[in-house]
Amino acid sequence: MSDPRPAWGAGFxxxxxxxxxxxxxxxxxxxxxxxxxxxxxVDVALAGGDRLDSVRGVTIRPLRLTIDVDVAPTSxxxxxxxxxxxxxxxxxxxxxxxxxxxxxxxxxxxTDLGPVAxxxxxxxxxxxxxxxxxxxxxxxxxFPAMLDYVVPSGVRIADGSRVxxxxxxxxxxxxxxxxxxxxxxxxxxxxxxxxxISQGVTVGDGSDVGGGxxxxxxxxxxxxxxxxxxxxxxxxxxxxxxxxxxxxxxxEAGLYVTxxxxxxxxxGEVVKGRQxxxxxxxxxxxxxxxxxxxxxxxxxxSWQGLNTALHHN
Length: 313
Prior knowledge:
Layout: E1 6-16, E2 21-31, H1 34-37, H2 42-45, E3 51-53, E4 58-68, H3 76-87, H4 101-104, E5 108-111, E6 114-117, H5 121-130, E7 137-141, E8 156-157, E9 167-168, E10 174-175, E11 180-181, E12 185-187, E13 192-193, E14 196-197, E15 202-203, E16 208-209, E17 214-215, E18 228-229, E19 234-235, E20 240-241, E21 250-251, E22 256-257, E23 262-264, E24 270-272, E25 282-286, E26 293-297
Parallel strand pairs: 8-10, 9-12, 10-13, 11-14, 12-15, 13-16, 14-17, 15-18, 16-19, 17-20, 19-21, 20-22, 21-25, 23-26
Antiparallel strand pairs: 1-2, 1-4, 3-4, 5-6, 5-7, 23-24, 25-26
């Protein structure tokens, strides 16, 4: 049995009127045991005990926690600490155990007032309107928006609702309005994200996920293969991949390459896409007359990389 990898966190947990946890926010976190690694001012900042928010019908409780990231999470707070570790860039995607997270997390109404239990939302709206106010419900989901919990340095995010807590965005990353990044996924260097990065997917330094492009994840199909994109790659607008790419690859706009896609090689051989997973220095393109998918050496290619003027954060 391997040695544990402990991580600690301290902050606040929100519980509804039934005592069910809605979320946890960690102001302080790191690797190691809480008692050994936490700064001296944590206990002072968390002093005061529970606080009742009568508007939302929730209780905010001080929280101190140590977990083993190699063991499956056992509570809502445990899950949230792992998501914070990812978004704070203390752990890269696919390096900590996230088994069973959907079964642990509750569906929550994410509002401008904070998290609200879905069953209590009607009462909260009524109370606010009776007092002359209103409530904006941003989403009903198990995962909140990352920016409500973690604001990583050196990134630009045009629409915060499209990046889930647990996303890993390296410095220099830009996520445009139609870009999306799921939890346990993200970028490892300077990248432009105008398409979808699904759960478990990582995108290398200098790569561009074009507008409407899609990278196949593992959640919907229940698969286990992890898709990765290497450095200096381009997914053209409305393209997609279900295989990994190495470095310096281009996928033509509108072309979706899956594991079963038949691809013609430069020597004329035809193979399935899965046999090309991880390949570098190639362009996936459709023949303009036959529509056949072909693989061609880039040899410099027409794409000259990211526009550096867009990535000064």
